[in-house]
Amino acid sequence: RFALVRGLGDVYKRQTMQLKLTEVKRLLQSTDITLDDIAWHLGFSNGNYFSKVFKKNCQMSPSEYLNVQL
Predict the structure, then answer these.
(1) Full-prediction pTM beyond 0.90?
(2) pLDDT digits over 8-59, tens only?
(3) Cβ neighbours of 1 (radius 10 Å)
(4) CA pair distance 15, 34, nearest whole angstrom
(5) pLDDT score of 1
(6) When comparing pLDDT for 57 and 3, which is higher?
(7) Alpha-carbon distance 62 to 40, whole Å?
(8) CB 3.0-4.6 Å disulfide test: which of 24, 36, 62, 70 passes with 47?
(9) Residue 41's closest CA among 11, 57, 14, 31?
(10) CB under 8 Å to 35, separation ≥6 — which residues?
(11) Taken in order 46, 52, 57, 58, is the CA torsion positive or negative?
């Protein structure tokens, strides 16, 4: 039973992170909000952690993503 609850928690965390990353990409493409402000807005502890998470999940930094999208 505990493994099921823990597994559901992991699924929830992954889905939540995917929603945040989708919102990050939208904000990067459609606004001039700074990376630090985006990080704060989405609940990341700081811009460096936000960039690390983004790069791990998207295989590029937020600034690289923005340059590719332009």
Answers:
(1) no
(2) 778 888 899 999 999 999 999 999 999 899 999 999 988 899 999 999 999 9
(3) 5
(4) 24
(5) 56
(6) 57
(7) 14
(8) 36
(9) 31
(10) 47, 50, 51, 62, 63
(11) positive
Instruction: Show contacts of 50-59: CB within 8 Å, 24+ apart.
Output: 50/24, 53/17, 54/21, 54/24, 57/17, 57/18, 57/21, 58/21
Cβ atoms 45, 61 nearer than 8 A: no
Residue 12, both tokens: 């929830």
pLDDT at position 2 over 90: no
Those residues whose C-beta lies under 8 Å from the C-beta of residue 27, and which sit 6 or more positions away, are: 33, 38, 41
